[in-house]
Amino acid sequence: MNSSTPPRIAIIGAGPGGLTCARILQRHGIAATVYDQDASRSARNQGGTLDMHADSGQKALRQAGLLDEFLALARPEGQQMRLVGRDGRVLLDAVPPEADAEEGNPEIDRGQLRDLLLNSLEPGTVRWSHKLTHVEPVTAGVHRLHFADGATTDADLVVGADGAWSKVRRQLSDATPVYTGVTFVETGLDDADTRHPALAALTGDGTMMALDDNQGFIAQRNSHQHIRVYVGMRTEENWHQGAGLDPADEGAVREALLKEFTGWGPDLLGFITDTDTGYTNRPLYALPVPHTWQHTPGLTLLGDAAHLMSPFSGMGANLAMLDGADLARALIDGTTTTDDAVRAYESLLLPRSAAAAEGAAEGIAGAFAPDSAAQVLAHMARMSEEA
């Protein structure tokens, strides 16, 4: 950055994108502070598994100096993709060739990836228990951050890496996430190979999908013999409220889901009945496509704050990390001002995120459609031929 005074950089959100940005900046001697609303790094479960793409997520990890550590944790076998009919028959099984983790898009648990990034940062970089309430413009390019505990701090650059319901985005855009029409009910199997061998065998080493007529099951192998399951359906945004369900009443939720999935094979229904983790309702949201904003000095976005999309792109975390890396690289360039660096970054971010979001919208529309089984089978067959 072409400035005699280092800018005060505040990154809101300790997800993969924000942490990647902070790590790369620190490697080049530029300080950044990450603020997160969680009480600690272990305050909540970080979710399922991610496939790290060579041209995005792995590229960002290489710039962060963490690729070797990632490869030591990654699961190449997790690239297996299996399509199953609603009767439980395997229709297509795309098994990755024998390869090391540097080839393809190996999987890693979200928690493992986050720990890898957190452990790479200088002590004190992340300020936990800092829930942002709003951002206040102070002077040209300077913004004041207001936190729930009454604390404030000023920053020359505020990076909104604060996810779907970003507070930073409100200063740049009127856009809000819109319900996609699809809800996942998340559940899971612990010690799956021992306690649930039939379901573990049906899942395989990677991801199993059974999608038909606006409904379906997605089961993903995680590390430590855990299988994370998403029971998906095209339905009303608050379907459980309409059905008079208390999400904490596991028995009632189980019966409601079994009724919704009448006619599906008993093997697949086991993903509903044999849960070890209860049920969590997860309606899927997305930002309008394309989502753009007018450049504003001192503010920018990355990851879901910039381009929230359905998980059917497979690009969410990968793009967030590439966003973080590209923003950091722009700021590291000593020939530009901070504002010019952000402009350069946004010129990369906006077109590629629009293309990915379009693909994600097409993906979820095809996966939860009346003829979804045929659409997904044709798509996976094409992918196998291209591999």
Note down, in words, how this protein is organized.
With 387 residues, the chain is α/β, with parallel strands linked by helices. It has 2 domains: 9-78 and 106-176 and 287-367, 3-Layer(bba) Sandwich (FAD/NAD(P)-binding domain); 179-285, D-Amino Acid Oxidase, Chain A, domain 2 (2-Layer Sandwich), CATH 3.30.9. 35% of the residues lie in helices and 23% in strands. The strands form 4 sheets. A 7-stranded mixed beta sheet has the order 5-4-13-14-15-12-16, sandwiched between helices. A 5-stranded parallel beta sheet has the order 7-2-1-11-17, with helices on one face. Helix 1 (16-27) links the parallel strand 1 and strand 2. The longest helix is centred in the last third of the chain and has 30 residues, at 338-367.
Please provide a brief summary of the model.
The chain is built from 13 helices and 17 strands. It is an alpha/beta fold and 387 residues long.
